[in-house]
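Assemble and predict.
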Amino acid sequence: MNLTTDKSTFAGLTAQEIQQIEAIIDHYEDNNAVAVEALNIVQKQRHWISDQCLCAVAELLQISRTHLESVATFDNLIYRQPVGNTVIHYCNSVTCWMLGSDRVCEHLCQRLNVQPGEVSADGEFTILPIVCLGACHHAPVALVGDDLKLALTEDSIDEILGVKHRG
Amino acid sequence: MSQNIRPDRDFTTLKDYRRTGGYQGIRKALTELRPKQVQQLVKDAGLRGRGGAGFSTGLKWSLVPMEDDSAADIRQTRYFLANADEMEPGAFKDRLLLEQDPHQLIEGIIIGAYAIQANIAYIFMRGEYRLAAKRVAHALQEARDHSYLGEHILDTDFNLEIYLHTSAGRYICGEETALLNALQGRRSIPRAKPPFAVVSGLWGRPTVANNVETLCNVPHILHYGVDWYHSLGLGADQGTKLFGVSGRVKHPGLWELPMGTPIREIIEEHAGGMQDGYRLRGFLPGGASTDFLLPEHLDVLMDYDAVAKAGSRMGTGTIIVLDDQTCPVQMVLNLEEFFAQESCGWCTPCRDGLPWTVTLLKDIVAGRGRMEDLYTLAGLTRMLGPGHTFCALAPGAMEPLQSALKFFREDFERYIIGNSATREPA
Amino acid sequence: MARIEIDGELHTVQDGNNLLSTCLSLGLDLPYFCWHPALGSAGACRQCAILQYRDADDQQGHLVMACMTPVQDGMRIALTAQQARQFRRDNIELLMTNHPHYCPVCEEGGECHLQDMTLLTGHTMRRFRGQKRTHDNQYLGPFINHEMNRCIACYRCVRFYNDYAGSDDLQVFGIHNNVYFGRFEDGALQSEFSGNLVEVCPTGVFTDKTFSAHYARKWDLQTAPSVCVHCSLGCNVAPGERYGELRRIVNRYHGEVNGYLLCDRGRFGYDFVNSPKRIRKLHIAGQASCSVTMATDKFHTMLQAADGVIGIASPRASLEANFALRALVGEDNFFLGLDDSEHTLLNAIHEVMRDGGIHSPSLQEIEQADAILILGEDVTHSAPRMALSLRQAARNAAFALASKLHIQPWQDAAVRELRKQAPTPVFIASICSTRLDDIATNTWHGGPEDLARLGFAIAHNLNDAAPLPAALNEDQQALAANIARALRQAQRPLIVSGTSCSSLAVIQAAYNIARALPESAPQLAFTLPECNSLGMAIMGGKPLQQAFAAMNQGLADSVVILENDIYRRASTQQVDAFLETARHVVVIDSLQNNTTEKAALLLATATFAESEGTLVNNEGRAQRYFPVYPVTDPVRASWQWLLSVMTDSPWAHHDDLTSACAGAFPELATIVAAAPGADYTVEGCKIPRQPQRYSGRTAMHANIAVSEPGQPSDQETPFTFSMEGTTAKVPPAVLPVIWAPGWDSNQAINKFQEETGGSLRAGDPGIRLFEASGTQSWFNDIPPAFQAQPGVWKVIMLPHIFGSEELSLQSPAIAERCPAVCALLHPLDAETLAISDCDTVAIRDPSGTLIMNMPIRIEKTLPPGLLGLATGRPELQPLQSGMLVCLHKSDPLATDVSEERS
């Protein structure tokens, strides 16, 4: 007789998410390889991966949820805690640091009244540090949502926050 | 390599790419050469890996056990990988190639995959490169639509599908074998070598992984030939290379230059020299995990051997400049924080040694340092040296530290003695 | 062989191994954490650094990790070079940056590998001034404590748990120096082998929770070599006692049987010894108290007065105790005390093993198999440790491919990467899904008849002379051909079968398959119900039903029941009638049960932990166990009770019984050599059960008497209940504790092995009683296919690791992991009955009499027409394999037996 394990359903996933995940399954020899892309897909809409989502993805792919959690907690772009609708990843690697990433962070925190990792009161933003974004010749930089923002100044940061707020 | 990257357009479409000779390389490879001949050609060209290690690309391809015609080989599946996980602090070359000229990379992959007879290739791209992912996905679709991918490419027997895999991030994913684990959906821990990926890679099958820039060289080698490629290099190494400079120079940027271009030319001419009011104190020649060099090394040529001889590594070829008003101790602290955070946690010296390094540097910067801490730090640079750890991350992390301890020792000591003369980074 | 130079000395060593394993095999001290002989190399901890020189002239050398470096002929290495020693010391210093400094209050202290290795490297000074990282711990179930702050991130736990044992609910989370080894959420570890984490973990992250409840230091435990009594495999164990209480079980390495690992039933089942149900007093019906003399007199009188005494033997008692009973009652009155079906099966298996000409493999040999057919067993539940061996065997094709690719077999991750490309053929034909299905290349489910028919068909495919079942469907034929092909192509094919299906045909079919593979030296392994099942089959005796008949017919009027709850062996009515008819009922047992309640004379007996004896495991290996601590009055060992009433017996001591038993049965002739006898001494001294650091001896009984009592004497074994004497150089069968200078943890075992992971020096304990000889004719009795009849279900009892075995069920931790009683039913049957999961059915006999109500679990792999129930659960006593029952959806208010239990 088998020991039963707790199973939550993958009913929590949307049909679109399931379809997108299933579309890439045959790109790989096994479903474990689909896992990270699947989490990316789910995170796109939901901004973060709840326990329930993680279990749903594991069940959909018929892989171990424990293994999936092991991978999810290793990677830094899978958010296992709620984040704002837009994550501002400010680069704190060496060139950006030299050219003022600490001030970028400070200014962002002050404007949004949050600490890195927290969600702003309006639910719009989360500030997180990130490693080098490959735009060192325009330092300091940040990835705001999907957009790379270059040569940040206090003014350009205010503009970004303002546009995002309006949008 | 950078011919199609122009300020007057967003990026190179398939049409643009073909207009400048694009997809001629695969025509030559697939219709005129056998896989082994392609391997030999790239080997003869002297192309070396642009990811930092500098291993001969053609030689790597030739190490893949190829199917013996006479025997039914159970290991027919092979994989080809493009490593687009650029994350070395200070490196910003692959992003440009990916965003601006994705077809060049695709052509390089097709040629590489043909050379090892792989029918599936993956582009492993870091998750933060959102624009690059969009452009590459678009280019892959264009290539598919024009039958550069799929079955019977150019009416030959060769089939290839390229999938874009976006990672959820970590510096260590760029390590070749860690990348294999990451792509397989595991924790991105490096693998023991041997076996090398060419023998047992993705899912235990023969696999070649090449850096984006490396692969972008390949179409041109096929198209224009070995002799042409040899004519490009100035020093001991062949071809051209993307060199970049970041930090307080007048014109930080990225340029395709002959291999072996003098560092002075890159910093002083292409980057325009230091910004007004700043003097050059030193530089990391090839990204965060290379040893500092000093102004006295400006005449060193940027090729693998010359930089090594000067006591550092060419690495990614992207120079980070240390000016006279940035504290080298704090700069090293920033670097070590990065490495400690990106350690995968597998082996002891890296997992526990890097955080200790950070603790010591923080103590020093905060005025809590002791003279013996410098001895401990020096010990750690030896402890975490090459061959002592599971992969090259920690040894790379020790390179800027060990050279900083050597070149900027007085800066460390000044903190400990208690009067910091350097100011906070402006 | 290769010649290598280590620290200037030449050694001849095995080719192909890694240097760490090689150095340890040579007896050298080299510290390590992530490497484990059963798990191979990982290269993670970097602790086994040594210096390797390029050639004879190289004075500098370079550091390499010994575990990741293969032996090469002519190589020069140094362990003691300053640079290597410095690195190893510095590496420990790094591990210690986060490890707590509270060894004196840590449970692992005194048997901590990390402690050993720290001392070995000489790291003593702390330079790190930072904060230590801390973690929250998880609840991991009744077996294992979790204390993550002690973790040194060697990754052994997850490599064992996931890669080796095949479970997936323990993992590593996080990254860099913030890695956490635990579960997705709090909850009991699901692996049946989780207890090994206690020994696999080099420090105190995972510790034995049952031990914590009555903790003592390793050096304060009294220990003797023992053999697990909770299944038929005979894993070697080292029980530890303090203050007259059995405190824990740890693994006792055996190169051929259990290696480094035990199952959780074997490790945590011991607490029955301390159970409140333990019989600690003698009892004469109708009398308030009973002394030893009164009991012996009473026993004697009863025997004198009896008109024929029936002796009922026990498959969970030693050969010696059973032999004494047989001598007491005579061969004609000696009954094995097994249910009818089991009696028949064991006899058949015994004959096949004795005369069938097929090799019966050890677990070590099972691990070498390159094609496997499991016929009718869910091995994880019927012989748990064997499942772990089968899981390793499933890697053999990957090892073969690795060898072709020049990948070293100890490069663990690299070999595992090849697993999918090179699957080892593993076929599992079973009643329903099993815990090994994930390693199977094919699984197939059927009732016992159909499993047997598949087996017969495979045998016929291999050899035309073997009978062919009639009317096989195409799928079965194709599968049989497929399995036959894989077995034929294998070099070391293995068939596993056993008694779980209660089907003689399954056992016979398994034999036919093995017999049909004459070229490839096939191996045939049987799983049996109890720790001495095979010993009893060898000794032979009459079936229990004949005892009932004899009593009924007045051929006897008294009965002596040895360590056997016969209510587990026959229907209540039958046993009631039998015991009520008997004029005298003498029961010798250690735990209260239904049978002991009926005893007119109840004799309290010692458990395995307080007595000695010989058991024969499923492989046919006779092994001796020894008392760990003396029994307290008035408890005696069973054999002593029996000898006490045999006035004219020539035997006074246990060794006399062993010899007499060997003399009486040719097949048992060699059992005397299973271990040295009581006259064995080392330098004139007996072997101490207490380590030399045993503390408190002079005062530990001061609450009873302030003067030190004399140490109890032991006339029966080579051991003494004392710390005087030496354990150095004693043969493995009588080695009480694994301990070597500088090596306080169980990992000291490398000092006792021929080579790491190999045989114990002077030979692994035990004597194999059979070697393949003779041949039996083909079994021809092929059953017809099972036909489900509408409205009637056939009961099939399925073993479960937690709950099916009588003694371990009395251990609270095991009881906690024991699943709630329920019945398994195929979805179609559930549909017919209009029931869904967790609904209750009324189980009735065909005449309509209600037997019991029972919740249902729908199991899609169970064949229709079968009702699956757990073996050995007291609640299910009225139901037996093969019974036909009717089912009806019952009133939701009907009593739920699982509630009754609690």
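The longest strand of chain A covers residues 86-91.
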